[in-house]
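FW: tagging you since you asked about this chain on Friday. Here's the raw sequence from the shared folder, copied in full. Didn't touch anything.
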Amino acid sequence: MKLKKLRNNLTSENNINKIRKLFISKKYNEVLKLCEKLINEYSEEAILYNFAGVSCQALKKFEKSIIFLKKATKIDPKNISYLNNLANSYTTLRNYADAEKAFINALSINNDNIVILNNFASFQKRVSNYPKAIKLYEKLILLEDKPYILQELADCYQIIGDFEKSKKLLNKNINAHPKFIKSHYTKSFSTNYSSDNEHLNKMIELNETVKMSIEDKIFINYALGKAYEDKKDYANAFKYFDEANKNQSKISNFSIDNTKKLFEKIKIFFKEKKNIKIKKEFNSTKMVFICGLPRSGTTLVNQILSSHSEIQTVGEISLIRKLIEEFFYDNDSISYDKINDEIKLDTNKLNNFFFNDVNFFLQKSKSKYVIDKTPTNFIWIGFLKIFFPNSIIIYCKRNYKDNFLSLFKNNLLQNQNSGWACNPEYLLDYIKMTDDLISFWKSFNKKIFYEINYENLIKDSKYEIKNLLNHCELSWDENCFDFYKNRKSNITTLSVHQARQPIYSSSLNSHMNYSKYLNKYFDKL
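HL: got it, structure written out here
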């Protein structure tokens, strides 16, 4: 009788409809409070636990959301929406094994559910399992031929280095959905506009005639800038790159002041730790952290080293920053107390959590070396030596003027927390701040990292690669010289095409082509 009474109540305005209205109005605390009250009276209603769980997700209380959603799936194990919500909470907390189980369970109930297939494909991308993601997107296309699915599939093929399949999918998408701007943007990377005016003319027409969102304006302007650069029309190239950056700045919430404060707090903390002896447990697998300013050669060095038979790579995962923020931040600022408390312990929470993720990504690979090539890990070099004492840190440095230009003309905000790159003043400040922080790390410990110069690597690649392998205590492997043939690595960065080509020198001193427009910044570098 109690269950029947609840059903009658839940279908009334005062219960389930009220919960739905509150949820739609984003009053998540009220939803949670009402659900918890009703659960006390009616403990076997799965829908109450589901609403409580998704409200906790919205409130970023993911551990609590899992408790509610596990109860919902226990009461109603065939409800794929509940399983999907549970999988999403597990994914956010990086409990990838349980997330995957929940997705697989949902698909065993309904293998054609578009929402589950799409979320599971996104999950596989997140854990760098692109072959599985491709299979899921290919199934999705058969069920729903939408432009965003074709784009995702094209991106996956591009990441694994199958450029032909990627290009076919992009052309298919552009022909079927000519106003889907992101496909034009992606196609621009693999198109040489010095001999191809057809696609350039299409993009010019779209830019002049189609009302676009600010995101699409950003995409089309970067693509047009790249096209005119191919044609060596640097005046028009600069015009479009500049417009793209101005639009990026409008949607970026980046704070250069917060970044300055972070860098200063890190230096203050480590000045006091210069002679400290720290002994912590750590995983025997040797991490190789490849870092530096974005567009400084990190992807190239990753491609070279991951060609070695003893090395695997997880690519650019930004996990160090996430874990440091999770463990050592308080009110959006780094906490000295939290770091000091952790340093005193023999256990190594950051190392353990990091390898928990890495082992899932690599399916428990037994490689002796694993690369994380997140460029901005240079910020955390001191922390890396504390929590990964057996790690190798490689810092990539490039001519700052060329590096500035490369950052200015590429869409970094799409892939990284890099709002500084779309504002030339911020970009100048960030490069100077980076140089200052790197000088600090050198003063802290001269041997804290190995520095590789991009220009030297281009000019005398065999010599530089041998030195790099020697530093990593690795034997010579001819595959490292033929790195562009390497298919072990998934390249998710803007260098996806360049890193799968033999070394070329056309990027050296490229800033000179734009000196007329950017000299006021170049002169300060």
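FW: The chain has two domains: 20-250, 286-522.
HL: agreed, and DSSP finds 27 helices and seven strands in the chain.
FW: great, closing this out.
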